Amino acid sequence: MKNAVPIHSVYNLAETLIFPNAITLKILLSGKHTNGIQAIFEDIVEPGVGPGRHIHHHQDETFFFLEGKFIAEVGGEMFEFKPGDVAFIPKGTVHAFKNVGDTSARLRYIFSPAKTIEEMFREFYKRSKEGALTLEEMAEISAKHGQEFVGPPL
Description:
Mean pLDDT: 95
Number of strands: 11
CATH architecture of the domain at 13-115: Sandwich
Shape: globular
């Protein structure tokens, strides 16, 4: 693997994947730019929205809560998060989050290493453009990228 090189990502130019009435996902730093060391994303999450409980089998994930009010379940324990809070989720840990506020909320997250998580999000997006993305399709796509859904959303 080549050594990583410095990169400057411009927020307003970040590729954006919009999942209507749910999450707007911004790709802030691709794993392709870091030679797979990490990938950084931002979600703008609509009220009442969050993913199902899931596990990343090959990556650690770190959440940075930027705006709004979230709850998150990490390893079976429930937490409340406000702007400025951070959470670290080691690989293999069941987790999920939800925007419990009345307005859109934002969080950033880092996957380390990047692996193919970006490709998973892109495949979710592509399938959603072809029609409603079912839970079965999400589980199938996730499994190819080292993620497993293990329960319903919060």
